[in-house]
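Hello again,

I reread your note about wanting to compare the complex against the isolated chains. To keep things tidy I'm splitting this into two emails, and this first one only covers the full assembly. Below are the input lines as submitted, including protein chains and any nucleic acid or small-molecule components. They are followed by the predicted structure of everything together. The single-chain runs will come separately.
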Amino acid sequence: MSLLKGACIIGQSGGPTSVINASAYGAIKTALESDCITKVYGASNGIKGVLDDKLIDMGMEDPTELAHMKYTPSSALGSCRYKLKDSTVDDTDYMRILEIFKKYDVRYFFYNGGNDSMDTCNKISKYMLAQGYECRIMGIPKTIDNDLAGTDHCPGYGSAAKYIATSVMEIYHDARVYDTGMITIVEAMGRNAGWLTASAALANYKGNGPDLIYLPEVPFDLEAFLEKVSEIYKKNTKCIAVVSEGIRDKDGKYISEYGADLSQSKDSFGHAQLGGLASFLANEAKKRTGAKVRGIELSLLQRCAAHSASQTDIDESFLAGKSAVEYAISGITDKMAGFERSYVDGKYVCNIKLFDLTIVANTEKKVPLEWLNSTRDGLNEKFIEYALPLIQGESQLAREDGLPRFVKLKKVIAK
Amino acid sequence: MSLLKGACIIGQSGGPTSVINASAYGAIKTALESDCITKVYGASNGIKGVLDDKLIDMGMEDPTELAHMKYTPSSALGSCRYKLKDSTVDDTDYMRILEIFKKYDVRYFFYNGGNDSMDTCNKISKYMLAQGYECRIMGIPKTIDNDLAGTDHCPGYGSAAKYIATSVMEIYHDARVYDTGMITIVEAMGRNAGWLTASAALANYKGNGPDLIYLPEVPFDLEAFLEKVSEIYKKNTKCIAVVSEGIRDKDGKYISEYGADLSQSKDSFGHAQLGGLASFLANEAKKRTGAKVRGIELSLLQRCAAHSASQTDIDESFLAGKSAVEYAISGITDKMAGFERSYVDGKYVCNIKLFDLTIVANTEKKVPLEWLNSTRDGLNEKFIEYALPLIQGESQLAREDGLPRFVKLKKVIAK
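Full-complex prediction:
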């Protein structure tokens, strides 16, 4: 191990989560306290902030104010969805990144995001190595989708799962209030991996859950779905189903597209009409049963509801950011600081484990089919055992006037 | 005042709120502890439970378990939307109610609901008086809509307002994460009164709020709206608007119907397609600006999100139920236990005040126009001053395994 002195950049990328700032704060705080790291910059809107020479001087922020970052949803530094080209095809961006790194003597780069961000990390790392520019590059995972390979789970998932399970429990009570019939369809995020949708099963574990859960891992049969809903409705006069936005039929067609077809998707200007999957399925169920129906899209709230974040998730996310910086200082590069689970005396413990960026960048982790029930419209105890530890603890978010006290950064741009 | 011994019935009616059970629990607990009240029955699904002779013996519930009712959303006893006919037109229901009251020696009737429930109370009260059957009848208000006349505010509103303001603050952070443009339209409940939608202004008060707020109290001009959104978007590349589900144009047509018209509302079976107002407006904004848009319907969650209820609202709701029982025991009848606000040393204080049921039943309280800003697309400090005390305090809801611990009633039906 060699001691490497220099500045660091921390960037955030991809879609928001309730806790991505907890990771960023873990990294920023640790970097600010380190003797090795001379300056701490936040990239304004991820890698675009590097390309645009828009770096926030994190040392100028008030430490007490900065601490609120741990509980503020979405990316406080700003995010982007910018994919670097292969450097062998076009190295313009890489040359610019190197230029900026040299300008600010950046020797540490931390990137906080999902698959694409790990890919960005990996590409920059390889380029810097090829150029002989010494720089340690670490990925810090985040995604509500929980689909990153290697790591036991992803920062952000626990909070989203907690929000979904809690909301479904509340919807369960709401939807049963009358003695008349009601069918409720709830739509959760997760285009290819069903982790978020599956978290509704945690509500079942508490006896206040949905009758049916459909993940994108299993081909969706509209007719079979309507038959099942109809059967449950006839028996109980109530039926709640939670579906993933990404459910597809056996031919791979998104069920959400069925709705768009039906409502003659284009308006007079040729624009597609927005049509929610939950509304479409609710409407189909209405046709089949005549029941009162309600379609509910959890929408953005499932990824930004910091007020109901899991404190376990917040603490683990912070730890991932902190560890990434500590490992980099100790000489590690080109890794992602992910999680490994163990049980000590039957109690869940989460430790940091390093993963190769290449593995993370190019694989997508799905819900194991053996965690589904036999009819594949629900989850079994294996999933509950997996997910339950991740949603523990209430967020210690500060409140002011009965509302969340989110961080307010000065964002002084470095010259 | 005369001492009246006998049983009581507590019923819940109308749509769910996060805290209607806090009121019911306040009434049930107080009744169970009273010497005057010999038996405490919960009406299963409101007045329908009385008509169907389906009364839950609340004395059979475990007191510790029952205490969870205070934090459980929706109506634990079940609700209904049953409107009694005028007794001079058809007194069948009234005769049946009297029969049940006599069967169980019911001398106290508490009904927990909105305008229609106060109307039910009032009608039963008048009938019993005419029949010479001694019975004390009290209304306990609830409605997220906050539209009951007389009372300063309604149990349920504070929690819904807190949820909406919190969610809009979180959406604010989410919607600004990229440096690309984005227009977000959030739809809140409240068909005729804009109290719920107005509560988004509390997010503004914290500096994380919407650019525009549209209440049903003000005629909505689609063209003017799109111009304003377009202007803000051009200036800031972000625009968030919160609209009431009940906004209407100057001719009184619901804007939500515009969307239904556009998407050729009927499908091949002749059923109306469900079309969200938020999606419609977002789509129109997209056509006008080319921006990325998102329509978010807060849906059921705004009325049942007990996990983010206001403890002030919970405590006040409990007090309303408790006071209704205490006043009835002391000899009062035919009143609603509402709220009166005062300020002691500048500090908000909420006291119980009794209101005539007739006043409450037939009037609808709207947001005063002088609480809107000059352009009528936002609220001013008068609204903030009114609403802020109502959202204070975090719910002391018990948790189990990281999820809410809601009440589980045995519901033993009385014979």
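For quick reference: Confidence is low (pLDDT under 50) at residues 264-274 of chain A.

B.
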